[in-house]
Amino acid sequence: MSKYKSWRYWRDEWVKPILYALVIALFIRTFVVQPFKIPTSSMVPTFMPGDRIFVNKFIYGAKVPFTNISLPKLREPIHGDIIVFRSPVEPKKYLVKRLVGLPGDSVEIKDNHVWINGKLIKTPLSIAGVTYYNRGKFGAAGESVKIPENSYFALGDNSLNSVDSRYWGFVPEKNLAGKVFLIHWPPKRIRVIK
After folding, report:
1. Which residues are catalytic?
2. Do residues 5 and 75 share a domain?
């Protein structure tokens, strides 16, 4: 019998390597890096519709699937991070927004800028350089919102065309998937996101 017809040959030369590759790919996607595609213009000019991004899943402590267990965090989220998270109103949908408010912060949109704890945000420039509009229940003019524990306030960079925390409120910490770190497609837009 030819060696190419034996089960041992197929198992050792094809089945095992494919299974190993699948396990490694699944591990990387679950705990290390996950790709996403930008579907809307809510983050223009940072991201354009159709941009493909990579998200660092371990920075905030990747979640173990089908459990409430998270791996240790490398660091806490900070103002200005671009985060990917499960939508608080549509749990099967992932959103990409800029992190503006942390747990315990009071956030207000006043004079088209973000004010945190009564102070105008001047840094990071990724927040200070964007024009934000008063919209929705949580972004109304003259209203300051207090962010609860284990929650975040996230806004789109394209404030006129973004359904974000101004409308649906807060992002629970358990919904965080990770931090965007790279646009990898299309080639002319490849760049590291800080």
Report:
1. 42, 97
2. no
